[in-house]
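A reminder from the course coordinator: this example appears on the midterm review sheet, so study it carefully.

Given structure:
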């Protein structure tokens, strides 16, 4: 395959603008699969992606296309996620391409994540081809979207291609535009091998399947390769390209995207962003790789059964291969035993990781309430970064604390502006900027604490704006806050796994919500159980789970009241002793209830 007939491109867009549907039409156009075997979201191969209708993993596929000039082209497509929590997947896809299709929904227009992804593509000097999708819908406003492409994005709206991915309209024109507009890759097949690992996954029979973009040289089956970061050497057993499945090809040349299998069983050897080179003729330096991912949400994951810890450890290693943005380290809890403290890119990322561990590896898990990283300054002059409530020092030792702030960019129709501004103020947001993009849409910019947008901000924003507002954010640094540790006491004993770090002003409301949810989830015992929220020694919220009463008088038919009183007093003494030694059973659903708690 000549390098000038290769096109490497990705599809980037805001969430739900039709990326996966467009990829489906490309696959059908190339007749890569029979109609009877076709299903929607062909590239989304996880059940969770199909159920939620979102893309979680970037997926590559090689599509053959015969252009109108009669030449056969090879189009290497990477379908990317649209949700802000998976932007790291997008950044890796972008670094292995020369061009990007910027997909814009004709009914929604340019949204926050559209801008964010476009800037990411511009940083990598990609050729950006704007595409207006969903032109078949009655609410489509194509002239309005063309104006937004000129005005908001600064791109040439005349070059935008109009398509309907669902109906298959304009797909041929778009494929021609890709061939014409997106440049072929650089590189020389005769240079020393230089390949970038942009993804990988674990196969229980073959070991690690490594996804590569070849920048220089040629990679062949049987060749000895070396990983730059670790210096480990492997012999390539199989090379190939991505079709609907994996298809062997014998070799990969400069400019191509494909996979290798080299019998790699040591999962920790493979790092996304690492460079692969030849042992015989190595390249001089590694490729730049990717920027380090910075997690923003932290939570601990524990197995329900302590005996499953080893299985959880192996599952985390294998999942890390497939999800490079997951960061974890060993952790332990008095209530839950051994587990892992994990860093996530957002709450959706956390939910997806939990579901994948449970589905793909058959594990039963308990997660602690999510938290962000705080900077805590002690009276001794020492400073610490803390993301785990268990590590928070006693309140009297703390001089001050700082929490991470974000700059949130919200694009909303002007009719919902008042409701959106009220929501941001509720979340302690400070307005920084506001400007009207046109007569119907306005962009507002707020600085607000990251902890406030973790739980329900995105859901509330969508419901207030009937789904039309879009939200994107960047971390801007730390600001002072009045931070306290909220402890949850069950029967007078603090459960470390339920502790949370919260803003003092919202602590009472959070404590009441958590206590109510726990009281509803914990089964009744034979003694009363107080569920309390406390800051230090001060109780700020309480719910009581009433006792299950055993009817000791059932066998007393009539008779003297003193006999009945004697039995009740005996029961009362027994319940006192039981309360002293009684342990409260805490079901898994109780931890999940706290995890999903909404602030009241």
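Designed residues:
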């Amino acid at each position: 395959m000549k390098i000038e007939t290769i096109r490497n491109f990705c599809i980037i867009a805001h969430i739900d603008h039709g990326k996966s549907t467009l990829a489906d039409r490309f696959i059908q156009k190339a007749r890569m699969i029979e109609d009877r075997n076709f299903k929607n979201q062909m590239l989304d191969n996880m059940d969770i992606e199909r159920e939620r209708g979102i893309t979680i993993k970037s997926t590559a596929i090689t599509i053959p296309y015969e252009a109108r000039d009669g030449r056969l082209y090879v189009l290497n497509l990477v379908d990317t996620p649209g949700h802000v929590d998976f932007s790291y997947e997008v950044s890796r896809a972008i670094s292995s391409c020369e061009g990007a299709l910027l997909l814009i929904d004709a009914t929604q227009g340019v949204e926050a994540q559209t801008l964010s992804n476009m800037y990411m593509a511009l940083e990598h000097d990609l050729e950006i081809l704007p595409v207006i999708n969903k032109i078949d819908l009655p609410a489509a406003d194509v002239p309005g979207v063309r104006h937004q492409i000129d005005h908001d994005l600064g791109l040439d709206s005349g070059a935008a291609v109009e398509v309907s991915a669902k109906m298959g309209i304009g797909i041929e024109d778009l494929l021609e535009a890709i061939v014409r507009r997106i440049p072929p890759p650089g590189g020389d097949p005769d240079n020393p091998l230089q390949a970038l690992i942009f993804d990988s996954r674990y196969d229980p029979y073959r070991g690690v399947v490594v996804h590569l973009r070849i920048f220089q040289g040629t990679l062949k089956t049987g060749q000895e390769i070396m990983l730059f970061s670790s210096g480990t050497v492997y012999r390539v057993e199989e090379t190939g390209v991505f079709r609907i499945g994996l298809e062997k090809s014998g070799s990969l040349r400069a400019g191509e995207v494909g996979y290798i299998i080299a019998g790699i069983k040591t999962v920790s050897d493979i790092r996304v962003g690492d460079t692969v080179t030849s042992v015989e003729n190595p390249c001089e330096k590694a490729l730049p790789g990717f920027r380090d991912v910075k997690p923003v949400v932290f939570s601990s994951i524990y197995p329900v059964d302590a005996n499953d810890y080893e299985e959880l450890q192996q599952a985390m290693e294998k999942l890390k291969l497939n999800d490079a943005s997951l960061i974890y380290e060993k952790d332990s809890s008095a209530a839950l035993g051994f587990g892992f403290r994990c860093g996530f890119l957002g709450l959706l990322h956390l939910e997806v990781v939990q579901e994948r561990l449970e589905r793909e590896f058959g594990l039963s898990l308990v997660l602690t309430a999510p938290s962000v990283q705080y900077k805590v300054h002690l009276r001794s002059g020492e400073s610490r970064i803390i993301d785990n409530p268990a590590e928070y020092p006693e309140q009297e030792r703390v001089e001050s604390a700082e929490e991470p702030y974000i700059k949130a960019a919200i694009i909303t129709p002007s009719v919902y502006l008042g409701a959106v501004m009220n929501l941001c103020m509720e979340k302690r947001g400070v307005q920084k900027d506001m400007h009207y993009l046109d007569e119907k849409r306005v962009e507002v910019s707020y600085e607000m604490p990251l902890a406030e947008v973790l739980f329900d901000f995105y859901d509330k924003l969508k419901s207030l704006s009937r789904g039309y507002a879009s939200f994107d954010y960047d971390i801007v640094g730390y600001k002072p806050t009045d931070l306290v540790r909220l402890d949850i006491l069950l029967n007078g004993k603090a459960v470390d796994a339920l502790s949370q770090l919260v803003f003092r002003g919202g602590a009472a409301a959070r404590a009441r919500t958590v206590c109510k949810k726990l009281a509803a989830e914990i089964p009744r015992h034979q003694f009363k159980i107080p569920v309390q929220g406390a800051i230090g020694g001060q109780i700020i919220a309480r719910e009581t789970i009433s006792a299950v009463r055993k009817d000791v008088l059932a066998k007393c038919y009539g008779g003297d009241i003193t006999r009945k009183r004697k039995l009740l007093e005996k029961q009362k003494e027994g319940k006192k002793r039981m309360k002293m030694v009684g342990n409260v059973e805490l079901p898994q659903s109780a931890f999940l209830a706290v995890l999903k708690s909404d602030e009241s």
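The CA atoms of residues 96 and 213 lie 6 Å apart. The radius of gyration is 28 Å.
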